[in-house]
Amino acid sequence: ARMAPTYPIGLPLALAALAAVTSWQLAPPLVMLASALAAVALMLPLGRAAGPPRGWSIFGALLFAASPLTTFMSVQLMSDIPATAVATAAVLCAWHSRTRRSWALVAGVAFAISVLIRPSNLLLLAPVAICLGTDSRRWLLFGAGGLPGAVVQLAYSARAYGNPLASGYGGEINTKFTLGIIPPTLVHYAQWLPVLLTPVVFFALVLPWWGRRQRFTWVLTTWIVVIFGFYVSYFHTHETWWYLRFLLPAFPPFIAGGLWTLHQLWIRHGAPRLTRPLVTRRLALAAGVVALTHGALWHYHLNAASIGYGESIYPDTLAWARTHLPGDAIILTHQTSGALQYYTDYTLIRWDSLNAERFARVTAAAINAHRPIFAILFPHEIKPVRETHAVGQWTQFAAVRHMTIWQWSPARP
C-alpha cells in the first residue's frame, strides 16, 4: 500500500478507463493502435496548417508512418506514441483557436493530457503560446481546459511523493542532465534523424531564416527547439537509435517544417518548369515509393517490429521460474522486479538497494529460515551483483535465452 510508481499517470489512466469498458487484455493494444493511427492522421491537418497543398500533407503522414521508430514504439506499451499524438492535437487546436476561440478549450484539455502522459510535454507551452497570442479570452479557455488535469497531477504528486511538484523520478533525474553529453548527442541526432525520417528533416533546419515572416513556421521551430534542446543534454539520448523516442513529440513539426521548405523550393524552382500534371503525379508517386522503400529497408535492418520477441523474455523466464524454483525462494532482482511483483508470488529484493551490510543481514535471515536465495539477471546485471554482493558463492543455476538464474550459497570454509 505504500508503494508509489515512478511512471507518469497519464497512460495508466487511459488504460484503466478503456479496460473498464473492454478488458485488460484489449485495453493496451487498443490504446496503442488508436494512438498510432491518431499520430499519423494528425500529420494531415498539421501539414495543411503549415501551408503546402494536401498532397504534401499526405507525404508527411507517410514519412511519419514509415519511420522505424514509429513502428518500434507503436508495437509496445510505452508512452511515446500517445504523448506524440496528444501533443500534436494540443498545438493544432491552439492554432485553430485563432479562427474559432472554442478550440482553445480543447487545446487546454489535450495539453493537460499530454503532460499527464509525459511531464516534459510541459515545454510545449512555448509553441502553444505563439498560437494563442495575446488574446486573453483564448488564454482563459485554454486554462479552463487544462485546469482539471493540473489538479489531478498536483494532487497525485502530493499524495504519492509528498510534494505537488515532485515526480516519481525523484532527485536522481537531475543527475541525468549534463552539458558534457551535448556533443555526442548532436552527432547522434545527425546520424539517426535522416535514417528515421529520411533526409527531408535537414530542410527543417532553415525554417528560422526562410519562414521568419510566417507565424506558423515559428510555431514549428519553437516546437522543435524546446523538445530537442531539452533532451540534448539528457544522458541516455545518444546511447542508441531507439532512445530518440524521447524526441517523438517533435517529429511531426520536423517533418512538416522540412516539407514546408521543400515546397518553397518547389515553388521557386520546380513548379515553373514542371507544370504538366502527369509529370507532377509521377514525381509524387516516385517520392512515395522512395519513402516507403527507405522505411522498409531500415525496418528490416533495425528489426523495428521485433520488440515483442525481445520482451517475451520476461514471461518466458517467469514461467520457467514458477516451474523450477521453490515457492519459498528469495529472488534478488532489478530489471525484472516489476514482472516478478505482478506475475509471481516470490519474495523479491532489489539487489541495487543492498550494500554489503544489508546483504549479509539478508543472507543470515535466509539461512536461519532455511530459504534459498536466487538472482534473476540480465547480462549487464551479473557483474555488479557478483562484485557488490560477494559474500558467499554465486553459481549459475540455469538460463532462459540471455536471462540467467543464479543461486547463492554460503562461502565454503
What is the topological layout?
Layout: H1 10-21, H2 27-41, H3 43-50, H4 54-66, H5 68-74, H6 80-96, H7 102-117, H8 125-132, H9 136-161, H10 182-197, H11 207-210, H12 215-231, H13 251-270, H14 277-302, H15 307-311, H16 313-324, E1 330-333, H17 337-343, E2 347-350, H18 356-368, E3 373-377, H19 379-388, E4 393-400, E5 403-409
Helix pairs in contact: 1-2, 2-4, 2-6, 3-4, 3-13, 4-13, 4-14, 6-7, 6-8, 7-9, 8-12, 12-13
Can you tell me about this structure?
- There is one protein chain.
- With 413 residues, this protein is α/β, with parallel strands linked by helices.
- It has helices spanning 10-21, 27-41, 43-50, 54-66, 68-74, 80-96, 102-117, 125-132, 136-161, 182-197, 207-210, 215-231, 251-270, 277-302, 307-311, 313-324, 337-343, 356-368, 379-388; strands at residues 330-333, 347-350, 373-377, 393-400, 403-409.
- Strand 1 (330-333), helix 17 (337-343) and strand 2 (347-350) form a beta-alpha-beta unit.
- Helix 2 (27-41) packs antiparallel against helix 4 (54-66), helix 2 packs across helix 6 and helix 12 (215-231) crosses helix 13 (251-270).
In short:
The protein is built from 19 helices and 5 strands. The protein has helices spanning 10-21, 27-41, 43-50, 54-66, 68-74, 80-96, 102-117, 125-132, 136-161, 182-197, 207-210, 215-231, 251-270, 277-302, 307-311, 313-324, 337-343, 356-368, 379-388, and strands at residues 330-333, 347-350, 373-377, 393-400, 403-409.
